[in-house]
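TA notes. Do not distribute before section.
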Amino acid sequence: MSTHYQAVVIGAGPGGYPCAIRLSQLGVKTLIIDKQYIGGVCLNVGCIPSKALINAAHTYEKLTHADEMGFTIDGDIGIDMSKIQRWKDGVVTKLTGGVGQLLKGNKVDVLMGEAKFSGANALTVTNADGEQTITADHIVVATGSTPVQIPGFAYADAPVLDSTKALSLTEVPKHMVIIGGGYIGLELGSLYAKLGANVTVVEMMKQVLPSFDKDVINALKRKLKKDGVKILLKTKALGWEQADNGIVVHVETPKGKESLEADNVLVTVGRRPNSKGLGLEDIGVNFDGPFISVDKQMKTNVPGVYAIGDVVGQPMLAHKATHEGELVAEVIHGKNVQFDAKAIPAVVFTDPEIAVVGLTENQCKEQGRAVKVGKVPFAAIGKAIANNATDGFTKVIIDADTKLILGVTIVGSHASDMISEASLAIEMCAEALDVGLTIHAHPTLGEAVMEAAKAALGEAIHIINR
């Protein structure tokens, strides 16, 4: 392995490995370094394993309601969490192995170890073999983020789970307390509730997912209640202690202090960027709080040093990191490009799924924008009825004067798959009629986007126009 490269990428997650691959495709001699695993948190202990387990929980739920469609299943449907975990691990292995092959096929050198800046163009990499120095013309920091830990709930304690530990349980807890009503807490809470756990979500704010519109939250809360998930709002977690049969989590509610029995307590109060401990301060890199400061070309203030993904700020999303990774590869190659996305979609893989791109209705009101809203329930969409998945709606928000699409919110089955059309519409500055007059295949869930665009103009066919 060489000791000098044209480019080095620190971090092999969804931002780092696409960056390294694209660099190599452009003819740049590239090394990628990771201290733990290829694929990063997302592929190994985040996005992919969580979605695999969520899929397993959905499958179990469908089986338990199969009689509604005329299927008879004799006896109880068993849950073997150890076997489910082995299946999940197989999914992860296929993907991480695939990334490894892509790096190899694109002639990207890989080095496992912990990297630290020893100069603006130099790194010291430490691993089981000792230390070595790597120099490079360009260095990209793509080190991702880590779950935030709160006082009184140390992840080192067995009953206290972070998202990584929660995705490796070999038994379904009888009782689980989740601290934090954000997307990770609600996704994992819904998952384990479907598998039979009694789940209580503790949230300090007055609403779970506080950045979403009220109609979105109402649709989600109905399903969470149906799944048996209990939500305590305006409630603070104080600490926990061991009990005879598990643990007790102490909380303070608006009505006073309570003690919640549990087998595990899952802490999901956010993530912090892995920007410290890399030696960036020593070489003079500027920070914006915990985040690395970059311009629209992902350049730091130090020539030859770049940063992408979670370490540069919100939204801390894998697909944003991937886009930034490919973009910075083009910049290093000498192309005059910059980050200029009009909107970045966000998805919450609860049941029903929530997907949003562009402005929400709340945000439009806060900005004082005059808008028109088209909202179509999935109960009006033939494919949704056939799929027995009528929970939720599609909402298209347009500028009242220009009719430009400002935002789209989808709540329902396969919302995550449908949001890309809406993202393209906003990116290309589409008007409502651009989507409304686009012929959508029938019967599909995507017809809801077309119908909601028409509804914003008062021209919907399958619902009564407001």
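Switch to the second chain here.
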Amino acid sequence: MTEIRHEVGDGVCRLALDRPEALNALTPAMRDRLVGLLAEASADPEVRVVVLTGTGRGFCAGADLRAAAGAGGERVAGDVARTLRVGAQRLIAAVLDCEKPVLAAVNGTAAGLGAHLAFACDLVLAADSARFLEVFVRRGLVPDAGGAYLLPRLIGPQRAKELMFFGDALPAPDAARLGLVNRVVPADELEKTSREWASRLAAAPTRSLALAKHLVNASLDTDRATAFAAESWAQEINMTTEDAREGLRAFAERREAEFRGR
């Protein structure tokens, strides 16, 4: 798969969508490859953070609709729902469920599925030239790829509807003000900043980050009693890790902790 660059080093798995002539629009093969690579990174003890970015002028222009628009034959009831379930929704779930922090470095346009791919990440850096589009309404489509799940949780239902109903481009600085982006940086500093953030995450206690990610994501769909119970068990699990023991020893010895991700 030459349309996705994949490299692992120093605890960082870097995934770059590499189809710049199409603004990195995702083909089914690319989408499935991403799902597989995220699963591998989640299970690999040598990977402690995942960075997702794009090459060229775009981060990801969404799903490649050319094949769908040109497909012939009669559509069977259930085909669309099934395609979404095993396709775009599976990709978004792979990001949300990845046991490692996933950092999006949005270098350009992120539209449709591409925008939701960024919003599903744990942290989002964006170049000042980047923009986000809920492009579905322009095509007469309903938002998919988890958009109606993600956006209201990030910015509330009214703002989510505004983006979805009008389909206007949202510049990165405005996305940051809404809370969709953690930080906006000059385009020529995006890679440097993403590497700095990735290095910090790779040096962090990996299992405690995984548990914190799970607690935060699950809290949006649970009541207080369930969230408190999950927190208790997360603490129980985390205290069995080497990193937790190292953190406590380092505190007692008044030194910086050296976490190994275990």
